[in-house]
Amino acid sequence: MKCEQDNEQITRWISHQMTEAERTLFEIHLTQCSACRQELKASQQVWDLIGKVPVPEPSDAMPVRFHAMLDTYKRSVEEKRRPWATLLERFRQLWALQPRSPWLIVLSWS
What we know:
The protein is mainly α. It folds into two domains: about 5-50, no CATH class; about 60-110, no CATH class. It has six helices and no strands. It has helices at about 5-15, 20-30, 35-50, 60-80, 85-95, 100-110. The longest helix has 20 residues, at about 60-80. It starts with 6 loop residues before the first helix and ends with a helix.
């Protein structure tokens, strides 16, 4: 544009982000500035084309993958907060997987 108005104002006008007062002032400016009218027309054409681009639908697997990613993230955050508790829990898991000796079983019944 070749005036004091900037592209941001055109974008805000197109996307309805101006207050009523700003909108009124900008529309008055448009009546007096051919450069801004041309820029507005070009910008509206671009926005219209963008609006015609099809939005792909997420796949059925997306929620499952998202929740798996979120669970992984939550575990990593928890591990950083409580490193000793996490280490203890891993030892417990490993202990649960180990075969027990008969003596341990006998002692645990006592």
